[in-house]
């Protein structure tokens, strides 16, 4: 049974007018392009012009205190190992390296060096065995990789140009501080690891403004967006010759590349399944928010729009009134229209992402925002599915991006389908010589389509 419940006010921060989406389709206010991340909010906070950073810091502290007080995720009783303690730094202890990228509100730089300031003699004795101080020293001594001299860590802080818009400052401050809270509470091999943050906490914004608070994260080599472009070029080299094409034969290299991409999809859905089991909805799943580390492992990052939902709600069934958030290209129809939604809004995004990873194409490429709303949100059109893909993968994508939220599978079911097909693909690609993942019973997902009666949407 579905119940519509109102979201608490913690998530009702302001946004710019051009990024807003109305709750009724007839007056949808759509951003000019479909790639950027945006939120809608039901309450505006009027930041005083005298010191918007002070206002934002105070507002943020109140919101976080309220959030933490009611959170199960942030109040776990797990015993902390020394490695779990955050390293606290001042900005003047950090030397910036290469510019790595920027988001809606933030810049990200590699950390060139960490100059841990000497402590006073009394303070040094007090902190000598402190886990926090050990964390500081460990990061400072391991900033660079031994053989490549590449940075291990990156710093994320707010952009300076936010100072021109007091409303955006409030939103950006909340997003960054809440991201730190989420990352410090989550632990999964495919979620980026946070190593530290600004020592002053949210109060750092008061004096330091955009650089007063920051996150220290593991460095990533490239985004999934970049990797997909590389895969597309590589895949073109493996096109079958005329005879193989006539026989519908796929080259071993192409088969192996497909299996590698399916492995990435497996790891992404594993991370998302973990989040959903923690009652966390991510709300901005897209290639730009996924990256590869030095070992080639995929990592989910940028938790600025993540939200913990009440544990007394079945968020795979019940609907919950939340602010519209995400990137329009990957945003579920119910979110675009300002309707109540649940964890399956993430399933919609994951389905589009899975299609993109396998098709090596951008979904709705060339669409304007208005065309996307009309063709995708209103008419239910979707990208064309490839009949050569495993039938279970085709079915799970098709169900996952259904306009009807109740017809979509859970993220865990999607993950299990990808996992099962991954073992099969690796067996084929590697001649049965390698089985990276143990095959498990499909159980109730043995016949995916029969498990969920969902009509196939029109293709575009």
TrEMBL record:
<dbReference type="InterPro" id="IPR011009">
    <property type="entry name" value="Kinase-like_dom_sf"/>
</dbReference>
<protein>
    <recommendedName>
        <fullName>Protein kinase domain-containing protein</fullName>
    </recommendedName>
</protein>
<dbReference type="Pfam" id="PF00069">
    <property type="entry name" value="Pkinase"/>
</dbReference>
<dbReference type="GO" id="GO:0004674">
    <property type="term" value="F:protein serine/threonine kinase activity"/>
</dbReference>
<dbReference type="InterPro" id="IPR051681">
    <property type="entry name" value="Ser/Thr_Kinases-Pseudokinases"/>
</dbReference>
<dbReference type="GO" id="GO:0005524">
    <property type="term" value="F:ATP binding"/>
</dbReference>
<feature type="domain" description="Protein kinase">
    <location>
        <begin position="94"/>
        <end position="418"/>
    </location>
</feature>
<dbReference type="InterPro" id="IPR000719">
    <property type="entry name" value="Prot_kinase_dom"/>
</dbReference>
């Amino acid at each position: 049974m579905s119940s519509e419940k109102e979201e608490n006010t913690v998530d009702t921060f302001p946004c710019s007018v051009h990024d807003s989406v109305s709750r009724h389709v007839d007056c949808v206010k759509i951003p000019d392009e479909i790639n950027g991340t945006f939120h809608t909010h039901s309450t505006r906070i009027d930041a005083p012009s005298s010191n918007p950073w002070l206002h934002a810091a105070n507002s943020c502290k109140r919101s976080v205190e309220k959030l933490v007080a009611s959170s199960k995720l942030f109040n776990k009783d797990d015993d902390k190992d020394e490695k779990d303690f955050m390293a606290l730094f001042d900005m003047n202890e950090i030397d910036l390296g290469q510019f790595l990228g920027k988001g809606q509100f933030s810049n990200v730089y590699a950390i060139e060096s960490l100059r841990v300031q000497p402590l006073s003699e009394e303070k040094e004795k007090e902190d000598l065995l402190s886990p926090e101080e050990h964390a500081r020293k460990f990061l400072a001594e391991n900033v660079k990789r031994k053989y490549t001299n590449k940075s291990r860590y990156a710093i994320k802080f707010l952009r300076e140009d936010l100072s021109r818009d007091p409303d955006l400052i409030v939103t950006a401050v909340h997003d960054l501080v809440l991201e730190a809270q989420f990352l410090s509470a989550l632990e999964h091999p495919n979620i980026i690891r946070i190593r530290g943050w600004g020592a002053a906490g949210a109060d750092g914004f008061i004096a330091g403004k955009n650089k007063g608070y920051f996150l220290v994260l593991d460095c990533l080599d490239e985004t999934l967006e970049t990797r997909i472009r590389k895969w597309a070029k590589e895949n073109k080299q493996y096109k079958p010759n005329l005879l193989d094409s006539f026989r519908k034969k796929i080259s071993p290299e192409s088969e192996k590349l497909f299996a590698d991409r399916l492995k990435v999809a497996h790891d992404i859905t594993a991370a998302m399944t973990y989040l959903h089991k923690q009652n966390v909805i991510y709300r901005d799943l897209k290639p730009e928010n996924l990256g590869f580390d030095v070992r080639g492992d995929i990592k989910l990052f940028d938790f600025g729009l993540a939200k913990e939902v009440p544990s007394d709600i079945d968020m795979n069934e019940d609907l919950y009134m939340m602010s519209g958030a995400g990137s329009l290209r990957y945003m579920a129809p119910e979110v675009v229209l300002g309707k109540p939604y649940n964890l399956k809004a993430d399933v919609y995004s994951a389905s589009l992402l899975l299609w993109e990873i396998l098709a090596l194409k951008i979904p709705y490429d060339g669409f304007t925002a208005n065309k996307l709303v009309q063709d995708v949100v209103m008419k239910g059109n979707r990208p064309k599915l490839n009949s050569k893909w495993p039938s279970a993968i085709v079915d799970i994508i098709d169900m996952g991006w259904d306009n009807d939220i109740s017809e979509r599978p859970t993220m865990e079911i999607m993950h299990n389908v990808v996992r099962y097909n991954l073992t099969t693909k690796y067996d084929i690609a590697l001649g049965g010589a390698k089985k990276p993942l143990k095959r498990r019973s499909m159980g109730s997902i043995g016949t995916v389509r029969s498990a969920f009666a969902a009509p196939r949407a029109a293709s575009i």
